[in-house]
Design brief:
4% of the residues lie in helices and 40% in strands. It has 441 residues and is mainly β.
Length: 441
């Protein structure tokens, strides 16, 4: 899924390392436990685990899924969400139950890798697990293939509020997830494949309150960090039956390469007015909305770009975008191309220049889009009507020309300090406080 623009951008982009707020990278192998997965035998530090074991890692057939044979009092699932007990029981569930750093390799098909440190973990700063993914291949057909259930939640302000009263707490777009209990590190040189499903909303017995609902193939109920080892050369590929990479609170991406193919949203952080998706480094390639709908990166709170190289695509028919947030979208650094039917507006508080382009009619799939003079170009995989460009290479008050398949385009442009507009196009509109727009060329 590499684009022409990625080839150019990556040639000048330093390989990302974990930022200051990153999770521990597990560089010190002392104390790192080795977990090897296979359908025949699960091994921890070289010793096979049995289903009867109750140590740091357990093996079972106990998986949360949306059961068939239920009625409307069970949950909100439809026929497409149902799974049989026979299908669920075929899965091997490997659950980490003690804090620590685990280097994980091997394959499970079907199976699930879970982390659950118990009911008291949410408020325990020591309840921290780091997964170093070092050649993992996981397939789960009834639920997320990787899931963090109970670990430490680093947003202590949020923990002080009852989740049923979440409207009482609205976060800042700047969060520090350094102490998060859910951490994932992509080992240098590794390729990790996660193919996952989801769990539709299941009610607490006798109520319509949520007991379980896990939309993503790779999922965390607590704030989560994802990064790379020293070289940042590890790869995580996610193929999702519903959403791709999800966190119920905050998500921070510090390094590595993450590729997502999702039927619905590619990335979703889903606590209303609270969640923050922060991208500090790495490479993100997202093709979302392969089903009926879906945004590339969707936050019910805020999105912050501080670095990295990001290419994100949304559904081509629903009113979705490469970037979508209920709160602020801030661009302070990095390379960004976001494409869809409708992208949400970038906040004027962004420190890096950006361009938001809207077209009177969609650009056809397979179109070569070029922002002349910048090296920013990509070929659309889907029909696209809205594009957001941002790069450190954009210059203030410089008039750029946009071409599609070599032809100069007319469009409506909204920018922060960047001039744009082809002959016959509309002059750019500068957000309030950003100065006067230049004359079109």
């Amino acid at each position: 899924m590499y684009k022409q623009w990625f080839a150019a951008a990556l040639a000048t982009l330093l390989l990302p390392s974990l930022a200051a707020c990153a999770a521990p990278a597990g560089a010190q192998e002392d104390g790192v436990r080795t977990l090897i997965l296979s359908n025949e035998s699960i091994r921890l530090d070289g010793e096979p685990l049995s289903p009867e074991g109750d140590g740091a890692v357990t093996v079972s057939r106990d998986i949360v899924y949306y059961r068939d044979g239920t009625d409307a009092s069970y949950g909100e699932g439809t026929g497409a969400d149902l799974h049989s007990a026979q299908e669920a029981d075929a899965h091997t569930v490997v659950t980490i139950r003690r804090p620590g750093t685990y280097r994980v390799s091997g394959a499970l098909d079907p199976g699930q890798l879970a982390v659950d440190l118990g009911d008291g973990a949410k408020g325990d700063p020591e309840a921290v697990v780091t997964l170093i993914l070092d050649g993992v291949d996981l397939t789960c057909t009834v639920a997320p293939a990787v899931i963090f259930y109970n670990v430490y939640e680093c947003d202590t302000a949020w923990v002080a509020y009852d989740e049923e009263e979440s409207a009482a707490y609205s976060s800042s777009p700047i969060v520090d997830t350094a102490a998060a209990g859910a951490n994932v590190v992509l080992a240098d040189g590794s390729v990790n494949q996660v193919n996952g499903s989801y769990v539709a909303r299941i009610y607490k017995e006798g109520t319509t309150k949520k007991l379980h609902k896990y939309d993503g193939a790779f999922y965390s109920k607590m704030s989560m960090n994802i990064g790379g080892e020293g070289e940042g050369s590890g790869v995580l590929s996610i193929t999702a039956e519903n959403e791709g990479l999800d966190s119920e609170l905050h998500l921070t991406i510090n390094g590595g390469t993450i590729r997502i193919q999702a039927q619905n949203d590619g990335i979703n952080t889903n606590e209303d007015g609270v969640s923050v998706t922060t991208i500090n480094g790495g490479v993100l390639e997202i093709n979302a909305g392969l089903g009926a709908e879906g945004d590339g990166i969707d936050s019910n709170g805020h999105i912050v770009f501080n670095g990295g190289t990001v290419y994100t695509l949304a559904n081509e028919q629903s009113p979705d975008g490469g970037i979508d947030a209920d709160g602020e979208i801030l661009i302070h650094g990095g390379q960004l191309i976001a494409a869809g039917v409708r992208n949400d507006s970038v906040s004027s508080g962004s420190e890096q220049l950006y361009m938001e382009l809207s077209f009177a009619s969609p650009l056809a799939a397979g179109s070569l889009v070029e922002l002349e003079g910048t090296g920013l170009s990509f070929t659309t995989e889907k029909s696209t009507q809205s594009i957001v460009f941002s790069s450190p290479e954009l210059e203030t008050d410089h008039a750029y020309i946009l071409k599609v398949n070599g032809t100069v385009q007319q469009y409506t442009n909204n920018t922060a300090g960047v001039g744009a507009g082809p002959p016959g196009g509309q002059p750019p509109q500068i957000p309030e406080g950003q100065g006067e727009p230049p004359e079109p060329p």
